[in-house]
Amino acid sequence: MPTNFTVVRVKDSAGKATEGNDEDVDENNVLKEEEEDATGDGVPKENSPFINNTDNDKANSYDGTNMALFEEEMDSNPMVSSLLNKLANYTNLTQGAQEHEECRMVPQMGTFMGVYLPCLQNILGVILFLRLTWIVGTAGILESLAIVGLCCSCTMLTAISMSAIATNGVVPAGGSYYMISRSLGPEFGGAVGLCFYLGTTFAGSMYILGTIEILLTYIVPKAAIFVAERKEDEVDALLNNMRVYGTCCLALMAIVVFVGVKYVNKLALVFLACVILSILAIYAGVIKTIFEPPDFPVCMLGNRTLQNHNFDKCLKTEIKDNITVTTQLWNLFCEGPELNATCNEYFDNNNVTEVQGIPGLTSGVISENMWPEYGPLGMLVENKKLASVPGGDPKQDIYMPYVVNDITTFFTLLVGIYFPSVTGIMAGSNRSGDLRDAQKSIPIGTILAIATTSFIYISCVVLFGACIEGVLLRDKFGDSVKGNLVIGTLSWPSPWVIVIGSFFSCCGAGLQSLTGAPRLLQAIARDGIVPFLQVFGHGKANGEPTWALLLTAGICEIGILIASLDAVAPILSMFFLMCYLFVNLACAVQTLLRTPNWRPRFKYYHWALSFLGMSLCLALMFISSWYYAIVAMAIAGCIYKYIEYRGAEKEWGDGIRGLSLNAARYALIRLEDAPPHTKNWRPQLLVLLNLDSDQGVKHPRLLSFTTQLKAGKGLTIVGNVLEGTYLTKDTESKKAEQNIKACMSAERTKGFCHVVVSSNLRDGVSHLIQSAGLGGMKHNTVLMAWPGTWKQSNDPQSWKSFIETVRETTSAHQALLVAKNVDSFPTNQDRLGEGTIDVWWVVHDGGMLMLLPFLLRQHKVWRKCKMRIFTVAQMDDNSIQMKKDLQMFLYHLRLDAEVEVVEMHDNDISAFTYEKTLVMEQRSQMLKQMQLSRTEREREAQLIHDRNTASHTTINDKADAGPERVHMTWTKDKLFTERRNRECNANVAVRDLFNMKPNQSNVRRMHTAVKLNEVVVNKSQGAHLVLLNMPGPPKNRGGDENYMEFLEVLLEGLNRVLLVRGGGREVITIYS
């Protein structure tokens, strides 16, 4: 829907701003500097003219008083006039493209020169000139059309998807890699970018091999270094020549690229002209065959095609001076030139005939070339219409001058060999930084280029099948026409037009590959997503990628050492197909997710077309070569996992992230439908961390223990509470979050960090317990460290907060794990030797005590530890039967553990227990007295403060309109009265303190703690870890401090202890 803008000019009634506003300007600058320093989340800001732009000239946009109402927002929100002015120069460049973009001239290239012609040059190439005739002859016209149709459909669908991506916003220099990485994220972007790089590099190998094949086979065959003395050695000799000359050609091209890329770019039009002239010569030759077919006879022996290198006449004998003499052909099949010499049996039984290699467009040969002629390696190229008398030993045929298949042929092989001839559709998008209007030029130019080349390929398939004899089509190297290029025999005015044109075309394409591939690698390296590639981001002073060029040449040499064009073509087909697959995937994902930023100007796309293109690419990969497809996918998968595990974190607003969000939302909604079944229950941890004054983590071993317990499974939320208000503690909270995340990364704890700022510690912890998590992904277990310094602390809030946390987890039906001496717990690098994890099962807690050791032993730190379970038998219990029952219970739980029943008899309460309880209660009473004295001193200080402030006037208070004061209800008289009462009761309180008797309930609790501690220390003092039921806090809050004493006595003398309190549900089951 079009949007109309009306620009209204507002007069400044006050004229220009006066010069007396220097103070205000300075204040604004100070504020501006502060906001620039506070970068927030540490993520570099996007270069955007819209908001949060801190350009130095921004203040000038707000001169005058018309917009004074908005001056408070001047540092974040620009005026519309400023916005529109900056939009004209807006660029949002990738890291790595910045340097190139800064030194680049103003883009002036249009659709024709910038996209259409480069795509034509890259698509039309070596396969058209060297292999298309052979593919038509081998596969037949119908299957050749199927091959061309499949491959061209694949590239057309990919071009449609690419056009949608390219028109969805500004496309900086970087082309296809930029589009894929920014649409699918750094992991997919890096994997596909490297696959695209490998494809382009192997394409360079293919073009160089094509250049050398044309040179040695059709231009100067005598330049071959390795010459086969026997016919069966010809293939090996050709491959060795390709390796030697190919390596020399690669070195020469690499030097040309290193010396100056500008010369390569200037020669691009020359190479393109060679391609176009060659294609025009083919069409001219086809038209000429209607009136005057060229004379290229093919010599046939019976129905077999002969190599026409070593004889001039297609005759067995000829008459010279009325004398019958043998010909050069006779000498190839017979043991001597004599007429009575012993000859090959097949040669004796069959006649020699000549057939026209190019019968012409009106000859009707098209009907014979409709069907395929696949065959194994060494199969003879035969014309089934001609008569043939079998004879001779077929094993000797390989030594005879017949034209044979040099490789085993089948449909899927030809698909892999042909597909590189339709690659090159990214040439336009790779030049996106040089285009005047990339969003308009890329779709039009690319689609027109594909349509043009598809027409050329389809017409060539039909015309080759209609003009050329089948045996000549299947003659890959033109051996039957004296080593001429087969497609050259059809061209007009001379075969040399095609030979020279294809030679320069392959040279140019090879140079373009060696130019483009290093730049692609440099862009990937500068993005920083693959750490070990960063060295390839550097180059010469002018930005040329020297190191990337060396690596490209090295990989290209691998392809040249393979030496066979037919073997290299399927390799680069895999990498290009994978690249096209992910382009289609990117478009389909963005469309299906309806991403808000997905608004491409190119409207002729649909997710179904992208999905069809993606499926077609995947099918073509496995059709071409299933093992190459698996290798290519494995390479991409390894790169993906490497970037995910070690690579730099990037946030590019990619579609995969949107897909993850959608999947997470769907999963969360499903999870909230019902609580997890007991079989699926696992501890989802909320880890409560303590930080020091510098916001550093106090107990990093707590995170180590979390990692060992979770092993990356389930949910982990690491929480912390800062006291204060969020407005004043904003910077500290972000610093704390960064420190926690760094510690989590160091301890390999996979999870989320949640820092809460609250007015007091107690409320903050309560908020975390209540609200951490989302939907069904909420924690069910709280892990915290034991407050080891609670006795030494002057502030009782430390242990009171701990006890309140215990109460709240119980109220929320969440399990609680408390680690004592957590700093002595093993790190992730430790490997505990032979030892035990001892479980003291005093009361049933839903099975947490059984489950936790099992989970710990899954980690390599605790793997060698054995599990022992102790349970306590009372006076009336049958300890023998208890042990049997417990062993049976563990058997059904599928847990391996030693079982021991410890008997605790009802002994008399010892004097030690009685005395310890008395000391505990006296200490508690003394602390209460000290607390009351402290409260009294605070009230007296408040009274003095109120008396001093009462003498001040209230004028300023009214002007400030601040919050109302809180008036104390204490007066001087009340204070003195309260003090006299305290003094009167002081002596009485002290006498009561020393005459008090311990509470019998506390005595019994202390007795249990002392006796149980004795038993645990006796049995488990040498254990690597002791798990123990955690008693609940008293319902009466007055006994909170006594509760801490009980726990302290219970844990005394033990090193590593994990107190466990169940969440009120069964977490382990005997059922499958």
TrEMBL record:
Residues 1-59 are annotated as: Disordered. Residues 700-818, 828-1072 form the SLC12A transporter C-terminal domain. It is found in: Cell membrane. The keyword Cell inner membrane does not apply. Pfam families: AA_permease, SLC12. One of its GO terms (molecular function) is potassium:chloride symporter activity. Keywords: Cell membrane, Chloride, Glycoprotein, Ion transport, Membrane, Phosphoprotein, Potassium, Potassium transport, Symport, Transmembrane, Transmembrane helix, Transport. GO terms for cellular component: plasma membrane; synapse. It is a multi-pass membrane protein. The keyword Glycoprotein applies. Its main location: membrane. The chain crosses the membrane at residues 114-134, 146-167, 188-209, 242-261, 268-291, 407-427, 447-473, 493-511, 547-565, 571-593, 605-629. Residues 20-39 have a biased composition (Acidic residues). Residues 115-293, 404-686 form the Amino acid permease/ SLC12A domain. It catalyses: K(+)(in) + chloride(in) = K(+)(out) + chloride(out). One of its GO terms (biological process) is cell volume homeostasis. Belongs to the SLC12A transporter family. K/Cl co-transporter subfamily. This is Solute carrier family 12 member 7b.
